[in-house]
């Protein structure tokens, strides 16, 4: 079934049949007709940010150092423009501005993260920083008084430096206990008002050789935090706890070649399934178990690089979610390849990935615009995990920020990607409850510093006041939020 002949004159029912067929054959490589329709009543709209990317105040009011503070302060800066998050958007001091921006956009919720080392400077619960607690109380209260629901990420990459220095960070399972203590503190202090928790924002950065141990500790920590809430808080706080997993969609490079189809599925299981299979089903995907075990043995190791979850952990993990958080930006074209490179996650998959050169590029090398990939990805999630409750927890587009207002490419990105979410919901029955744009305003984009800008508000990082200017996309996005979808003009 080739879709290249599809024209915009086709009637909706026919394109529906075509799209159903193409989902079976997996070769939809271009956009369907734009869908004018609205999301179901009660669908929620919001923005996401992360503490290190916006807060600043890195060493103020008792905050402890995080690994990102330490990393960006290296003598030879690892950040592309030599910048850091010391001040960033200065949201620590200017959170009322953030709430004003959210209000002006007409959102129902705000997804932000808590800086672990701001509330527990050493990462351990022997020292609680009450000034840090107050900051989040003030933010949460201001959101609620403006009818904006707080959705809180507990961990968005800024591990307290002390946990790194003392225990070696995530490879050390000692961190499970410290994360559980941290989660307890958050439930105790904020759970009367925060009803939507995300334990981890999971995304594997770079091609580290041994990320499996870190993931193992993170999964166990997630399970502990989920079960703690279920056991001691859920009954009276009535909230929900989920996990956020970031993945590209993996499209078979040649959809007519079964080995490419298989390679794409394998890549999805290595990327998304790595975290989601334990959370949904209790264990790692079998394809990971087989490939990593075999390669570890070939390397002459006495144990697999992929650790094992025993019965007790499997039981604790299986079903440890109330919803799935979906971070999605782009798509890869995947084909099989020999195991390659250093022992590690990347080579273990036996795939190679590429981007189609015709895909529109953003300011970020990794981010190309592939709207149809989003719909296919959402259908893959639906089919793989039995249609769980999902929130889109991140989706967005970067530019270089040289023009503070004209961001046409971002407006078109949001329009086209959200239209594919709409198709997934209305035509495919994917169970999505809300959409979160990344991001409310330009912020510190990790290793890319301030060169890649994802905001719908432009931030002047040379101005001590951190003035913000609405970009054109803020108007486009606000209209989509207001209309709860797309109304034909
Ligand atoms: C983990 O932390 C404990 C407690 O400090 C320490 O004894 C152990 O050596 C650490 N393990 C690793 C692998 O670093
Ligand atoms: C396996 O090898 C590692 C070093 O690679 C060693 O630390 C460990 O003790 C060995 N385990 C067993 C069970 O032999
Ligand atoms: C905005 O920029 C695009 C090119 O990126 C250009 O085509 C368009 O005309 C510009 N719009 C305005 C209003 O300047």
Automatic annotation (TrEMBL):
<protein>
    <submittedName>
        <fullName>Lactase-phlorizin hydrolase</fullName>
    </submittedName>
</protein>
<dbReference type="InterPro" id="IPR033132">
    <property type="entry name" value="GH_1_N_CS"/>
</dbReference>
<comment type="subunit">
    <text>Homodimer.</text>
</comment>
<keyword id="KW-0378">Hydrolase</keyword>
<keyword id="KW-0732">Signal</keyword>
<dbReference type="GO" id="GO:0008422">
    <property type="term" value="F:beta-glucosidase activity"/>
</dbReference>
<dbReference type="InterPro" id="IPR017853">
    <property type="entry name" value="GH"/>
</dbReference>
<dbReference type="InterPro" id="IPR001360">
    <property type="entry name" value="Glyco_hydro_1"/>
</dbReference>
<dbReference type="Pfam" id="PF00232">
    <property type="entry name" value="Glyco_hydro_1"/>
</dbReference>
<keyword id="KW-0325">Glycoprotein</keyword>
<feature type="signal peptide">
    <location>
        <begin position="1"/>
        <end position="26"/>
    </location>
</feature>
<keyword id="KW-0326">Glycosidase</keyword>
<comment type="similarity">
    <text>Belongs to the glycosyl hydrolase 1 family.</text>
</comment>
<dbReference type="GO" id="GO:0005975">
    <property type="term" value="P:carbohydrate metabolic process"/>
</dbReference>
């Amino acid at each position: 079934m080739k879709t290249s002949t599809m024209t915009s004159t086709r009637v909706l029912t026919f394109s529906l049949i075509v799209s159903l067929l193409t989902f079976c054959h997996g070769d939809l490589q271009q956009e369907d007709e734009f869908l004018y329709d609205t999301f179901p009543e009660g669908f929620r709209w919001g923005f996401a940010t992360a503490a290190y990317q916006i807060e600043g105040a890195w060493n103020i009011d008792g905050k402890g150092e995080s690994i990102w503070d330490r990393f960006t302060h290296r003598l030879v800066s690892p950040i592309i423009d030599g910048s850091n998050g010391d001040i960033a958007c200065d949201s620590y001091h200017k959170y009322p501005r953030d709430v004003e921006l959210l209000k002006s956009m007409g959102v129902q919720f705000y997804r932000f993260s808590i800086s672990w080392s701001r509330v527990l400077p050493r990462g351990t619960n022997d020292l609680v920083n009450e000034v840090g607690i107050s900051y989040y109380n003030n933010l949460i209260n201001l959101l609620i008084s403006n009818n904006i629901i707080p959705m809180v990420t507990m961990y968005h990459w800024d591990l307290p430096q002390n946990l790194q220095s003392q225990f070696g960070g995530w490879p050390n399972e000692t961190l499970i206990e410290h994360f559980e203590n941290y989660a307890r503190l958050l439930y105790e202090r904020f759970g009367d008002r925060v009803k939507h928790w995300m334990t981890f924002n999971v995304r594997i950065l770079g091609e580290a050789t041994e990320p499996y141990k870190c993931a193992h500790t993170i999964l166990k920590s997630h399970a502990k935090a989920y079960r703690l809430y279920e056991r001691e808080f859920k009954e009276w706080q009535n909230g929900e706890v989920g996990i956020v997993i970031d993945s590209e969609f993996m499209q078979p490079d040649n959809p007519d070649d079964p080995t490419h189809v298989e390679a794409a599925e394998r890549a999805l299981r290595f990327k998304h399934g790595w975290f989601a299979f334990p959370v949904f089903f209790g264990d790692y995907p079998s394809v990971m178990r087989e490939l990593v075990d075999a390669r570890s043995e070939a390397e002459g190791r006495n144990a697999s690089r992929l650790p094992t979850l025993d019965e007790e952990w499997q039981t604790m993990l299986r079903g440890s979610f109330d919803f799935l958080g979906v971070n999605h930006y782009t798509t890869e074209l995947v084909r099989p390849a020999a195991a390659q490179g250093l022992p590690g996650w990347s080579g273990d998959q036996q795939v190679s990935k590429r981007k189609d050169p015709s895909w529109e590029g953003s300011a970020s090398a990794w981010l190309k615009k592939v709207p149809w990939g989003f719909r296919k990805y959402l259908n893959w999630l639906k089919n793989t995990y039995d249609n769980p409750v999902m929130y889109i927890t991140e989706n967005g587009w970067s530019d270089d920020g040289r023009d503070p207002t004209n961001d046409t490419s971002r407006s078109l990105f949001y329009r086209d990607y959200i239209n594919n979410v709409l198709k997934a919901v209305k035509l495919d029955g994917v169970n999505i409850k809300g959409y979160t744009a990344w991001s409310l305003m330009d912020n510190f984009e990790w290793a890319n510093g301030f060169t890649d800008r994802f905001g719908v508000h432009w931030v002047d990082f040379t101005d001590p006041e951190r003035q913000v200017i609405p970009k054109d996309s803020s108007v486009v996005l606000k209209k989509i939020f207001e209309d709860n979808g797309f109304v034909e003009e």
